[in-house]
Amino acid sequence: MARKKDSSLAKATRWNNNYWIRDREPDKICVHHMAGKNTGVGCGNYFKHAGVSSNYGIGYKGDICQYVEEKYGAYAQGTKYWNKRCISIECANDGKAGYHVSKATIDACIELVADICQRHGWEKVTFTGDTKGRLIMHKYVANTTCPGPYLSTKFEYIAREVNKILDVSIFLPERGYFKLGDKSPQVKKLKAWLKKEGYFKGRNMNGTYSKAMVKAVKRFEKAHKLEQDGEWGKKCNAVYNEVR
User: Fold this and answer.
1) Topology of domain 185-243, per CATH?
2) Distance from the CA of 142 to the CA of which of 88, 121, 219, 228 falls in 20 to 30 A?
3) 88-108 residues labelled b (16+ CB within 10 A) or e (exposed)
4) Which residue has the higher pLDDT, 174 or 83?
């Protein structure tokens, strides 16, 4: 399967060998709760010796730790089938009745889900209240109350906030960059932004990567001290995500 770079949002790791080798691309993000107040690293230390795992964990202050690479299916969902389909995220809570989750943890979860979607080329995250959506709860696939009563009420909000991020994200093609002659709705989105910022001088606002688009990208690259090849790739995207 194609290797997707793991999230740079994880500032710590606690590598865990409890995982399945994926025989398919993941297509779900499953959010869990830790059922306690913990840090991302603390949860990882526990998982390492408990025979379970997750791809990521988010502490009660919003710290993100990675335990299992995304190319593997963590022992998190309860069955091999769902472990192989899901990228899993554990979220800390206060450990009290209702399992309240902090704003910092929820905000970090939104950022992490958006980052996963961007890297896997998922242009929208859906939450449908069952296993049909991209974003699912642990209790949809296992006999559990996880992710707890409080976090369960936040999934529509999480999906909505993630989509706000994805709506302005530029998704690159499989080769990793757009070039002259490409046609894509993403090019149309990018062209509109470059027009608004004064880089694109052409009139045709369709989704074709035209000669005028090459010139616009070169202007953008020059303004941000990048190599001026007129192709929109990962370096351009990184700058775009900082300045937009």
Assistant:
1) Muramoyl-pentapeptide Carboxypeptidase; domain 1 (1.10.101)
2) 121
3) bbbbbbeeeeebbbbeebbeb
4) 83
